Amino acid sequence: MTRGAPPLTRRHLLAGAGGLGVSALAGCAERFWSRAENNGPDQVSLTIKTVPADDDAMASMIVSRFRENVEAAGIDVSPEPITESELYRDVLLEGEYDVFVIRYPGFDEFDDLYGLLHSQFVSEGGWQNPFHFSSVTADDLLEQQRTESGETRRETLAELFEYLAETTPFTVVAYPDRIGGTRQSIDAPAPPQRAIEFIDLLSTAPAAAGDRDGPLTVGIYGDGLTDRLNPIAVDRNRVPGLLDLVYAPLVRRPSESWEGAAGVASAHSPSNAEPVPPEEYVPWLADDVRWDDTGRLSATVSLRPGLTWHDGEPLDADDVAFTFRLLADTSLGTADSGIPAPRYRGRQTLVDTPDQIEVVDGLTLEIPFGTTTAPAAAQFLTVPILPEHIWEPRSELVAERQTRALTTNNDAPVGSGLLEFSEAGPEELVLEPVADHVLRDSVSTNVPAVLDGFPQFEGLRYNLSPNVGTMVDALLAGDVDVTASPLPPEQIESLADDNAISLLTAPSTSMYLIGYNTHHPELGNPNVRRILSRLIDREYIVSELFDGLATAPTTQESLLGYRDGDDRSEPLSLAGFPGTDGELDVERVRRLFDEIGYRYEDGVLLR
Amino acid sequence: MALASVVLQLALVVATMLVTAALVVIGPRRLVTALLDVRWRLEMCLLPVAALALVLFLRWSTVDIAVRIEHRVLGNNITPQLFELEQLLFPVNPVAVLQTFQSPELTSFFAFVYIYGYAFLLLFPIVAYFALETMDDLSTLLLAFTVNYTIGLACYVLFIAYGPRNFDPLLFEGLLYDGFPQMRRLTNQVNQSTNVFPSLHTSLSMTVFFLAWLTREKYPLWVPVSGVLAISIAVATMYLGIHWFSDVVAGTVLALISVYIGRSYSIRDLRRSIG
């Protein structure tokens, strides 16, 4: 074998030929270079993440409609179904998404927007600014509304909503009604969602005495529902009411969409666009909260005497102060600049630093809110209280910027609520009433009216189904008293023929929303987000997909998650769908994109 | 209806089918002969059985890890690509086309085939080849099953893919779980809804059918029976909205590879070539 010489010769030859070719095709070369140097404008492309249809059929259908319209607008869309816990990880913890569509349980207070949109949380995980939205204007208004009350706060909020309507970090598609079914003997005004609603059900005697023995059985469905019972994790804790029942808060917010002792006395229902005065909050672990707004706002919280954790340890003011410290920094000072909990963060910033919370004595705390206004500050007290003796050791670091408090599954939660965790299996999760709970003691003062008659059942049992059909079967078979997971409207028929079952529907403040990752090159542009938000016919979705069992947002506030009880409908151009009856007018959309400086080529929207 | 009753029902139906088919296709005489000298037969196919058991055990014991790797480490969600590919190839998605022929009878038939027919199709050849004079065909079958599982499960870790019904409920219907929600208790035990590409239902069924063809001289009656069942199962996976057309094609390719490996090598050969 002769190696060396021949390849060399061949290379020379090739180089010579190449040179000849290049000079001969000089014109072509120019085109080649310009192609190679500027890799031309590309099509705008987006992925849309949502849960698979098995987990939430309605979210999937909304994405289906949205995809068609966005595609017709010349954008390359890839819808990615992803299981709920992974979706929350991607969106809330990793920031790996362009657009997401989910059902959100709903806001309570205007101040919820602070945690959701303030740029101070731009790098934090959890429901803290998952959109990576950063705007000085919004920050200022969010801070300002915290310090104001009455008409001045209303004006600031109006300004904030106007600004957010223009910049659209997220948009509401529809407010689905709560839909469920119940056995007729159970007097449920709606499918229960919040802890206080479950407690109201447990306090109400079934219509036919002796009709039910044992626990109240609540039907829910989904995948891996009981895998994680960690109250401060965001990726999985989806059993309605569960963790708020086990972990009691200082006070509970009354419920907007529930008639009865647990509800807000409101002429209009439901509405979360009306601040609830702090006095209307239901005292729970605290038997008294005294607000002092002479000068800087502060609250003196008195705990009920004799409170204990489910494991028998006493509960005192130190546990409360500890909870706020843990939420602010789950490493309790070990990690640089702290590792905040991914939940309850927005509320936690209502006080300047958690260290300022003063433990006056074993049963009394003084919480300084500084310039915060009382309706917003009251939200701070609804955070579930955690036992220091269990969570303090969990502040240890297990990985970089991960504490055990965040990674633990918390398989056997120990709280201080009226119900304690008993057992969880693949088909059920059982809570038992705590017999000697202080709230059930006749000598206790200021006992909430909702506890009148508590308990009429031997606890609460969640019946777990793998899918919605199985849950409906369990209800029809009499294995379930009331359903809590939302029933898609198409399932209503299956309940209609059964006389022992009543259908429950009630308007709600939960919502399907489209969220945008403003770190995406195109979605960073508020004009693009505003047009995208118009590419779904909300009225059509409500009438065709929800069979009318939902409400379409029609005002600036309701497009941002705050629905008004009286639904004043003035059609809003910002939400205006460019088309009719769900059919998109492609020419109009193209003009919209054209107006904000985008170009089309062969029907493709270019970057 | 809890899991136990769903499983019991499956066991009863499949056992009835197995007994009937054994009497008709294998014949009482062969069955009796086989039962008389079980021992050497078992010894002969011990190795492939162990290999299959090992793969199934590994899968069962590493489900948590596999799911974590699939989602957190690799995170290749190919669902939109499967949808777009089929949009490119067909004017209307094959799954949607099949679902236009929807009727309650057809849905019941395909649901039956998908659950009961499939279990029967996988179990019967094990009995049938066990009753033959040599254990070669049984070893081939078991090795092919093992290869199917190994490659299929590797793909499941590599790719996250949801089936049509989970992707877009306005275009595709989830007929199986709409009509028979309880079946989810059963399928949840053996599968996750992201295990879609390739279709192991198709690949294992096709493997049985291809091997039935290769052993047609021994069991001529089994060829048409397994053929009809295997094709029905492949169609059922699409009709019921569980799999994409691409999954079925990939499943069929996987079946061909598995049969090829099963025929060309025995576990003994593999061990010799490694050793």
Protein architecture, described:
- Chain B: It is a multi-pass membrane protein.
- Chain B: Keywords: Membrane, Transmembrane, Transmembrane helix.
- Chain B: It comes from Natrialba taiwanensis DSM 12281.
- Chain B: It is found in: Membrane.
- Chain B: Its main location: membrane.
- The complex is a heterodimer of chains A (about 600) and B (about 280).
- Chain A is an alpha+beta fold.
- Chain A has 2 domains: about 45-175 and about 510-605, Dipeptide-binding Protein, domain 3 (Roll); about 195-255 and about 280-420, Dipeptide-binding Protein, domain 1, CATH 3.90.76.10.
- Chain A has 20 helices and 25 strands.
- Chain A has a 6-stranded mixed β-sheet, sandwiched between helices. A 5-stranded mixed β-sheet of chain A has the order 15-16-17-6-18.
- The N and C termini of chain A lie far apart (about 55 Å).
- Chain B is mostly helical and about 280 residues long.
- Chain B has one domain: Vanadium-containing Chloroperoxidase, domain 1 (Up-down Bundle), CATH 1.20.144.
- Chain B has helices spanning about 5-25, 30-35, 40-45, 45-60, 65-75, 80-90, 95-100, 105-130, 135-160, 165, 175-180, 185-190, 200-215, 220-240, 245-265, 265-275.
- In chain B, helix 1 packs across helix 2 (about 30-35), helix 1 crosses helix 8 and helix 8 (about 105-130) packs across helix 13 (about 200-215).
- The model of chain B has no long low-confidence stretch (mean pLDDT about 90).
Task: Outline the secondary-structure elements.
The complex is a heterodimer of chains A (607) and B (275).
Chain A: H1 5-24, H2 26-37, E1 45-50, H3 57-72, E2 76-81, H4 84-94, E3 99-104, H5 112-117, H6 136-147, H7 150-167, E4 170-176, E5 178-183, H8 195-203, E6 216-221, H9 242-246, E7 251-252, E8 282-283, E9 286-292, E10 297-303, H10 317-328, H11 345-348, E11 358-361, E12 364-370, H12 374-377, H13 388-391, E13 397-399, E14 402-403, H14 404-407, E15 419-424, E16 428-433, E17 460-465, H15 468-476, E18 482-483, H16 493-496, E19 501-506, E20 511-516, H17 526-534, H18 538-545, E21 550-551, H19 556-559, E22 579-580, E23 583-584, H20 586-595, E24 599-601, E25 604-606
Parallel strand pairs in A: 1-2, 1-3, 6-17, 6-18
Antiparallel strand pairs in A: 3-20, 4-20, 4-21, 5-19, 7-8, 9-10, 10-12, 11-12, 13-14, 15-16, 16-17, 22-23, 24-25
Helix pairs in contact in A: 1-2, 6-7
Chain B: H1 3-26, H2 28-36, H3 38-44, H4 46-61, H5 63-74, H6 79-89, H7 94-99, H8 104-130, H9 136-158, H10 164-167, H11 175-179, H12 183-190, H13 200-214, H14 222-239, H15 245-264, H16 267-274
Helix pairs in contact in B: 1-2, 1-8, 4-9, 8-9, 8-13, 8-14, 9-13, 9-15, 13-14, 13-15
Protein name (chain B): PA-phosphatase-like phosphoesterase
Keywords (chain B): Membrane, Transmembrane, Transmembrane helix
Transmembrane segments (chain B): 6-26, 38-58, 109-132, 141-162, 196-214, 221-242, 248-266
